[in-house]
Structure formats: structure tokens, C-alpha cells
Design goal:
Elements lengths: L1 E3 L10 H5 L4 H8 L5 E4 L14 H7 L4 E7 L5 E7 L5 H9 L3 E5 L5 H14 L1 E10 L14 E8 L2 E6 L18 H4 L6 E7 L4 E4 L5 E3 L6 E10 L2 H15 L15 H17 L5 H16 L20 E4 L5 E7 L5 E7 L2 E5 L4 H8 L3 E3 L8 H14 L2 E3 L10
Parallel strand pairs: 1-2
Antiparallel strand pairs: 2-10, 3-4, 3-5, 5-6, 6-12, 7-10, 7-12, 8-9, 8-11, 13-17, 13-18, 14-15, 15-16
Length: 413
């Protein structure tokens, strides 16, 4: 679907800005895992993130970045000439550009102007986020039609681009054992589907391509620079991997080794077949809530903290119940009732790479903090003034909360 966004010269600061006028709710119900989305934003909407002027600085400064040079092959495809960006001079990238080769600048997520958006998207999608820049000279050959294992947000920064999007039914994901698995014909022929839409992108445009949708960008008529944001969420397959480990903690049978020699012995494999049915029965007793708690803790820790001044805790000593505080943006947190080593029940809030535990009656206060972006210390329920101040000071020191200036306005979620 194609949409026109309202005029705004400021760069998008959130996912809601990227897809405006589409709401987040509509995106996840109508487009996520279902269809493409094309939104036109007027002007240089995304130039503040990364531009042609930034390429030299990125090549000189990146520690983990890579440059893929797309070299045409006789049969119409391309091959990749791969380099560590730190091993290249900026002039080499420019030379490849002048020779008419498209280049992919990989791993831009730590570029300063992109870090805030990357962390925000990571929180919105509860996903790993990676960013590549595609620098394509006029007429340069790009890769043929393919389908990706990630959902992709394409931000057109400079120049125009034309895309062909194909019908799809296979939601792909990266499988660690893909070389050893047998795939159905639908998966094998997933890039041979009919063309669904042709999309022309101009500077400021956004295109969402769901994972598994075959797509192809035609050679541009002028220099094109795109940012492609790759979203890798957690899948049900990942959840089941957590479930397997949860079950293994509680079941001796799952911790037993496969019988030696099973690769070359049909008799051993027959015995394993009977054992497999018994092992699968163990999963009927796996606790969904226990697995979900483990997945939540993992996601919270993986999200971590933003680089927004966690060490600046000055002013917390002047905290009063009339002070206004906020949860640091894009820090995930989850609350659970857990048991300590002496089997005492504790209310625990997990955030970043830390946690804070207290007696069961603290749950109400922690739940309030989790569900508010901003609040006054005096609003925290279930605690007296001393308890409110102790809790907030601790969470400021640990990095979940921060003190707002006195003139800050209180705004609930």
C-alpha cells in the first residue's frame, strides 16, 4: 500500500514517525508478516541519519564495518568482493563508485546519528536491529531477485529507486541447520512468484518489506543512497529452544547423551525412535510461564542501556517526593515474583543487565514504575514517603530511572 505522510522537515525520531500517517497498531495488524508498505515523506526526511558526506568519516572510524562490492557476472548475476572497512581507504570506496560498482556499507548501527533510532526500534520490535547503506551509481547492477530472513525497512536518502515486489507465502528465518534440513517445494521456489507491485522511491520515502517477500531493485538512473534497516525478532522456534533448555533443567532424561555410534547403526536409531516419543512427553509438563519469564529476562538483558548518560546521577541526593522522574527511554523492564536461595518469595524488577528485589508487597510499586514513562515520586503506590525515596534513589543509581528538571511536565503513557 502507498501513503502520503504530512509535511515535516525534521528527521524521524521514532518508528511512529517513520510510518506516519500509519499508526503502530495498524502496521502490526495489517502489514507485519503480511504485506509491504510504502510511505512518501517529503524532502530529505532521512538525510540526518547518514548521507553521501558521511561515507568517508564512516570508513575512517568504523571498527566492525564491512564493505561489499557488487561485481557483475556474465550470466546476469553479481558476486561480492568483501572487505573490512578498516582495511580500506576512503578513496578505494570512491574509486569503486566511479567505476560503476554498487557497494553495501554494512553494520552502520553504531553510527552516532543512527544509534538512537536503532535502540528505539529494538525496543519497539523486541528484536536485533542492523543497518546497511546501499550506495549505487547510475546504471549499476544490483543483486537479482531474492528473499531475506529479516524484515526490512528501506529509507531512501538520496536519488531515486525502483523496486519489484513479489507475492510471498513463506515467512523465512535463519536456520542454523539449513544445510542439513529438507525443505518443501514452496520454500525452494519462493523467489519465482508473480510480481505483486512496482514501487518508485524518492528521497524521504520509506518501504517496508516483510521477510520472505522476494524483491529486486532495478539499476537506478542516478546515484542512489539507501539505508536498509534489518529487523530480526524472536520467533516461536526461538521460544521452543528456550523451552527445551527449561525442560532439560527439570528432566534428567533430556540431559542424557545420544547413544554412541547412532550415525552408523540402524538398530541404535530404532531404540532412539522409541526414546524420542518418551522425551517428547516430557514437554507436556513444561511451564509456559517459566519459559516466558526466561525469554523476557533474556530480551531485557540483550536490550541493555542506551548511551544517554547513565553515569550522570548527580542531583539524586536532592530527590524529594515532589520530584518528577522518568524511565530512561528504550530500557526494557519486566517484573516477576522469584524465590531466593532460601526459598523466600521476592518481587523483582529486571532491567538492562541488572535487577532489584524486595519483599512481595513491593510488587505494586514496581508494577506502577514499569507502566509509567513519567511520574512524581509521591505517586508510587504501596509505600510511605521514606520507602518511595529509597526505591527511586536506588533505581536512579542502578540506571532504570532518571531525575527530570523541575520544569518538566508530567505525562503518563
Amino acid at each position: 500500500m502507498n501513503y502520503e505522510a504530512p509535511i515535516c522537515d525534521e528527521p524521524a525520531a521514532s518508528f511512529a514517525d517513520l510510518i506516519s500517517p500509519i499508526s503502530n497498531e495498524e502496521f502490526f495488524s495489517v502489514y507485519w508478516e503480511k504485506s509491504y508498505l510504502h510511505v512518501r515523506h517529503p524532502g530529505s526526511q532521512f538525510a540526518g541519519y547518514f548521507s553521501l558526506r558521511n561515507i568517508e568519516a564512516w570508513v575512517r572510524s568504523t571498527r566492525s564495518g564491512m564493505v561489499f562490492v557488487l561485481l557483475p557476472e556474465a550470466e546476469g548475476g553479481v558476486r561480492f568482493d568483501i572487505h573490512q572497512a578498516r582495511d580500506l581507504a576512503p578513496g578505494t570506496v570512491l574509486g569503486n563508485f566511479r567505476r560503476g560498482f554498487a557497494q553495501i556499507l554494512k553494520r552502520l548501527a553504531d553510527w552516532p546519528n543512527l544509534q538512537g533510532l536503532v535502540r528505539h526500534l529494538s525496543r519497539v520490535f523486541h528484536a536485533d536491529i542492523q543497518v546497511n547503506a546501499f550506495l549505487t551509481p547510475a546504471g549499476a547492477r544490483t543483486h537479482p531477485t531474492y528473499s531475506a530472513n529479516d524484515d526490512i525497512l528501506v529509507l531512501q536518502v538520496e536519488g531515486d529507486a525502483d523496486w519489484q515486489l513479489h507475492e510471498f507465502s513463506v515467512l523465512q528465518l535463519d536456520l542454523s541447520q539449513k544445510r542439513n534440513l529438507e525443505f518443501p517445494e514452496e520454500w525452494q521456489r519462493r523467489t519465482e512468484t508473480p510480481v505483486l507491485a512496482e514501487v518508485h522511491m524518492q528521497p524521504g520515502d520509506l518501504l517496508f518489506i516483510p521477510r520472505g517477500m522476494p524483491h529486486f531493485a532495478t539499476p537506478p538512473v542516478s546515484t542512489s543512497l539507501q539505508l536498509r534497516i534489518y529487523i530480526t525478532p524472536l520467533f516461536w522456534a526461538d521460544f521452543l529452544k528456550f523451552a527445551a533448555e527449561y525442560a532439560a533443567v527439570h528432566s534428567q532424561e533430556l540431559r542424557r547423551a545420544l547413544p554412541p555410534g547412532f550415525v552408523g547403526s540402524d538398530e541404535t536409531c530404532d531404540l532412539m525412535r522409541a526414546s524420542f516419543q518418551q522425551v517428547m512427553e516430557i514437554f507436556k509438563g513444561v511451564s509456559f510461564d517459566g519459559v516466558l519469564a526466561a525469554v523476557k529476562r533474556n530480551r531485557v538483558a540483550h536490550q541493555g542501556f542506551p548511551c544517554d548518560g547513565q553515569f550522570d546521577v548527580l542531583g539524586a541526593e536532592s530527590l524529594t517526593v515532589d520530584s518528577e522522574v522518568e524511565r530512561r527511554p528504550d530500557v526494557l523492564c519486566t517484573i516477576e515474583e522469584v524465590f531466593d536461595s532460601e526459598r523466600n518469595r521476592k518481587s523483582t524488577i529486571f532491567f538492562g543487565d541488572g535487577r532489584l528485589s524486595g519483599p512481595p508487597h513491593l510488587y505494586r510499586a514496581l508494577d506502577f514504575i514499569r507502566n509509567r514513562n513519567r511520574f512524581w515520586v509521591a505517586e508510587i503506590p504501596g509505600l510511605d514517603e521514606k520507602g518511595q525515596l529509597v526505591l527511586v534513589r536506588r533505581l536512579i543509581a542502578e540506571g532504570l530511572l532518571r531525575l527530570l528538571p523541575e520544569e518538566g511536565a508530567c505525562a503518563e503513557d
